[in-house]
Queue: 2 jobs
Job 1
Amino acid sequence: MAVATANQTIGPYWHLIEDASWADLTRFGAAGDRIVLTGTVTDGAGDRVTDAAIEIWQSSPPASPDFPAYGRCRTDGTGAFRFITLKPGPVAGVGNAQQAPHIAITIFARGLLQALTTRLYFQDEPLNETDPVLSLIEDAARRRTLIAQPVAPGAWHLDIRLQGDNETVFMEV
Amino acid sequence: MTTNTAPFRPMTAGSQPPNDTPEYGSTRLRHPTRPLLRIPQGVTETTSPIFAESRFPPIADLSMATGKPALGERIIVRGRVIDEDERPVPNTMIEIWQANAAGRYDHPGDQHDAPLDPNFHGEGRVFTDTDGWYQFVSVKPGSYPWGNHYNAWRPNHIHYSLFGTGFGQRLITQMYFPGDPLLALDPIYLSVPDPAARERLIARFDLDITAPARALGYRFDFVLRGRNATPIEQA
C-alpha cells in the first residue's frame, strides 16, 4: 500500500493560481436560491488573516454543469471573504440521519501546514438540533462557531477564528 | 457515471505535518489549540468538484508565458496520481505555481530583490490522463530568502494543488529537488515527521523523461488518501 503524500503550506503566493470569478458559484448560470456568504478570518492575536485561501464545497444542490458546488476566495486586506452560491437543503446522512443544510469550508494559508476543515450551518434551521455533526459538540458556545447569521435578506455571515477565544470548531475528516 | 461514496481511511501516523510546528514561525498564531472534531464522513466529504478542461483550460508549458522562452534551466515534470491502493486517479486537475529561476514570484507580495522575468509567470494547470499520468514543462525555480529566522532560505520547490475524487482527498503540497542542501535546514520540509514521507516530496531526476538537447526530466508521483472498500452508488 502507498501512503498519502504529505501536505505542505499553500504559502503567501498562491494568488498566482487565483481566479476571482471562482467565488461566484452561480457564474455558469445556475438557478436557485441565490445567497451571499461573507466572513472574516482572524488569528490567535485577533489580527485579520489577509493571505488565506477559503474554499467551499457543498453536496446540496448537487454539482452540475451549471453549478460547480465549489468555490475559492481570497481573504482580502481586511481578512474578509465573500461568496455567491445557492442555499443548500438537507443532506442525507449515515443510516436514516438527515444532516442540516451545510457547506464545507477549507482554509489554506501561510502558517497552516495542512488545511483546516470546518462547516458552515445556517441559523434557524430546525434540523440543526439533530444534525449528526453539530450534535457531537456538547458546548453550545462552541457549536455557535459554525452557525452563520443572517445579515440581510439572502445574506449570511460567519467569522472564523483560527485560535484562542471562540476558536472555530475544526474537523478531522 | 459512478460516484464512490466510501469513506476515506485515516492518514498514516507521521505522514502529515502538524499545524503546531514552532520552528515555522507563522504557525504560532494560526494553529488551532483545541483538538480536531472527528466527524462521520458523508456525501459532502466523500465527493468532490469536477473540473472540466473546457472550463479550466490547461496551461502545460510554464516556460513560455509570452511565446518567448523564460530564463532558467528548462525542466519536464512527469508522474502519476494514484491513491493509497495504487489505483490511478484519472482526469483530475493539478494546479501548479512557482517562483522563477531567480527565486522571485510574479506576485505583488514578493519583495525579494531578484529580477522578474517578463517571459515567466509561474502558473500552470494540467489534467491526468486515463491512467493517472500528467506532465508539464517549466524552468527550475530558484531558492529565495524568507523571514522565518536569520539567514533563512527556502529550498527550490514547486507548489501543487489536487482535488482527487473526494473533498477528504484535497491535497496542497510542495515538490522539492534532489541534492538541495537547503532541505536539511527548511522547517516547512522538516515539518513532516516521518523521514520517508518527507523524502517522497523530493522529485527524482529521470533520464528517460529528460528530452535530449531540450530539458531535464524529473519524476514526481502524488498519492491521495485511500477509501474503505464498499459502497459505490450510481450517480
Job 2
Amino acid sequence: MLLTEVLPVAPTAAPGLRAALLADRTRTLTDLYRRTFPAVRRHVLRRGGTDQDAQDVFQDALVVFYEKAAAGALALTAAPGTYLVAVSRNLWLRELDRRARHPRTGLAAVEEGPTEAAEPAAEEPTEPFSVLAYVEQLNEKCRSILLAYYYFRQPLAQIAAAHGYGSVRSATVQKFKCLERLRNAVRAAFPHALPC
Amino acid sequence: MRPELERLRGIEHYLLGAPDAPPPAAALAADTEAQRRAYGALHLAGQRQLRRELAAIHETLYGPRAGRWAWTAAAAGLRLVFARWGRRA
C-alpha cells in the first residue's frame, strides 16, 4: 500500500510548516495529529500492535518531526503526513524487532544485570536525568524561557512578547540569567564530575 | 550585560554556534562542561514537555471528553434542525 493512498494530501511546505510550528505549536501539531494518526493507528493495529503502541510510536515520530522542523533540518519530499507515517512505520518495525529479540524482559532478568545489548557505563544514562531535576527546580518563568529558546527554538522576539518583555534585548539578558542559574546548579551538583 | 553573562554567551557560541569556534579564553573548563550538561538537560526537559503536550492533544482529539463533545455537538445540531423544521410546519 502506498503512503499517498492512506493520507489526504497536505499542502504545507517545510518552511511554512516550520513557521507554523513556531508560531502556534499546539494548533499545528493538533492539525497534523488529526490528519495523520488514524493512518498510523491502522498500520500498527494491522501489524499486531495496540492503540497504546500506535499512540507511542506516533508521538515519538512527532517529536523527531518537531525537532527536525524547528532546527530547519527537515527536507520534505512529500506531504508532512506522509513523512510522519513513514517514520512511524519505521519506528514500529524497529519496536517489533526489539520485542522479537527480547520478549517481555521480566523483573528478574533486569535484576540479573545487563544482557548482551551492551549498555553504556552506569554513570552516563542516569546523569542527564539528574541534571533534569535542576531544570524542574527553576522557576516557571525561567523554565519556560529556556525551553522556548533552546528546545522549541522560538525566536527571541516571540519569547519577549509572550513573557511581557519590552525588547528582545531584555529577553536575551533574562535568558542568560536563567541559563546561568541552571549552569551554577549543575556545577554545584556535579563538582567531581566536571574538570577544574 | 554583565561580564559573567557575556562569558556565558561566549561559551554558548562555542558549544552551539560555530562548530570550529575556539573555546572562549576566559572560560573555565568546568563552566563549559556544566553549560554543555545544562543544554543536554534542557533538551530532555523539552522532549518531556513536548510529549506531555502531544498526550494532551491525543486526549483532546480521542479521549472520552472528545466523544462527549461530539455527542453534545450532534445533539445541538439536531435541536437546531428540529427547531427550523418546527418553524416551517
